[in-house]
Write a structure and sequence with these properties.
With 89 residues, this protein is an all-alpha fold. The chain has a domain of 29 residues.
Length: 89
Amino acid sequence: MIEFFRIRRLMVRTIVRIVFAMGLCGLISCQPPASTGARVEIRPSFGPVRDLSHDEAAGGHILRKHVGQTDEQLAESSAGSTARAGILI
């Protein structure tokens, strides 16, 4: 009978250690990769990336007219631009 409890205690300890190790591995895998000092550029896979600062420097209006606008202001601007372009909605 004493042998049974020693085996059971050994099994419980082993299971607890395995669960702890798996949990630790799970936590480590959820961490972002360590920074190596190199700049990492993340690009979306759904379309081309365009740096709008080049347009702004060339006299564009992308950031100045669109960033910081409310949805209503953007809708008004969009309606005006389609009318200017001759597009009827």
